[in-house]
Amino acid sequence: MNYYELLGIGRDAGQGDIKRAYYAAVKQHSPDFDPEGFRAVRTAYETLQNPKKRAEYDTIFAVDNDIQGDMLRARNLVETNKLKQASELLTSLFNAHPGSREVALLHARTLLDLRKSKTADAIAKTMLAQDPGDIDALLLRAEVSVVMGHTAKAKERFLEAVSADPANRRVWNSYAHFALSERNRLIFDVFNQAWQQDPNMFSDKYSLYLAATAYILDFHGAADAVRYFNKFTEHYIADKHSTRPVYNLLLNVLFEILSNEVSPFVADLEKILPKLEESPFKQDDDKAKFNILRNSISIDRLHRDDEIHDVLTDLTECLLRDDVDQEAKLGMEVYIVSVLGTIRPSIRRLQAKYPELFKLNQAFYLDALNPKKEESLTNKYYSIHRKLLSAEKLSPNNTGDELAEPPTTFVREAPKIGRNDPCPCGSGMKYKKCCRNEA
């Protein structure tokens, strides 16, 4: 009895029909009272509700009715990795029905799995003699060459398959797996050719885009890799059932990106990170990795913001490190204090547009924005600066070069305005009632 008969549905049944038939069959074959029957029903359902497995299963019905049962048994043996038993059954079928393409193909693939490459290749050649455009036979010969270590011949045979059916995604998937296993320029060529044929060529196995990203990033740069990462992101976000291998590969590739040029990938990183943080596959130590990713995104945003002064970006990057370099932090704060008049707009921009980064050094930034604290802040940091310079002169590593003296105590450019003095803005109000409140 085949899977369709087991569920009581026709060959043209839709997904809804398959699901309803499965629930009805489970009532008749409950796991408690008929575990063997339940397993059979479950296997039938899992096969027919998966489009790829169903298509493979349906090839059985192209064979004669009298050998469908044997083909089903052979396929089940292959799926349960009982290859020797499957091979014995298929050899018998192959000898009895030498003209059956489906028997020959399953027989050859089973032989290849058993490392009987020459026999599998001979069967594939016979199939191609009957039909030179048989994609399955062309792919089988390419895979035989891969198993035998004949790399150049494998490439030639994959190209034959691509030429025979340029839009066949299964062909491109096999060719891409082969290219990735070789780890050479072929990867760039294969993915570039597939992209020109159809950017969504690997949508069924979208992790291939991610694998290509890693290699192309290392050997060709971000400009060539970003489109594959973008395509991966598109499919990864849409996939509600992504797997652990994809999650693990993604983490590895993300850190490849961080060690290269982050900017081209930031938009995709911002989309991916929330899904990573919610992933059922995340480990406890992955949280630290997520923080590194978030920090890298933040720093890149500052680098690309022309209204943020470079020293603020550098200071933020310093503050985001697990072990903050206090001496470097102090040096940058001294510089900020020395140019307060020109850098305040940039600090205000940081406060308004990047509040989470502003909070990293909030007390200092608020003091820097407050004109009333300008004098004390300047004197404080110049004093610190002088101490640093003195320590530098006394250091045994000092070369003896003259160090620049810090400016003297802060001197106002204009006389200090008292609280009860007329406001210099010309409003006629006292300073304490007018611009002082804005300050």
Cα Rg: 35 Å
**Helical percent range?**
55-70%
Class inferred from helices and paired strands: mainly alpha
Number of helices: 24
Runs in which pLDDT lies below 50 for 5 or more consecutive residues are: 398-413
For this structure, the quaternary state is single chain
Gross geometry: elongated
Separation of termini?
Answer: 87 Å
Strand content: under 5%
Number of strands: 0
Instruction: Average the pLDDT over all residues and give the rounded result.
Output: 87
Biggest sheet overview? none
Order of helices and strands: HHHHHHHHHHHHHHHHHHHHHHHH
Description:
The protein is an all-alpha fold and 439 residues long. Among the domains are: 115-198, Serine Threonine Protein Phosphatase 5, Tetratricopeptide repeat (Alpha Horseshoe), CATH 1.25.40.10; 203-304; 310-394, no CATH class. 68% of the residues lie in helices and 0% in strands. The chain is built from 24 helices and no strands. The chain has helices spanning 3-7, 15-28, 35-48, 51-58, 65-79, 83-96, 101-113, 117-130, 135-147, 151-164, 169-182, 186-197, 207-220, 222-238, 244-258, 266-277, 286-303, 310-319, 326-338, 340-353, 355-358, 362-369, 374-394, 435-438. It is elongated and about 110 Å long. The N and C termini lie far apart (87 Å). The relative contact order is 0.03.
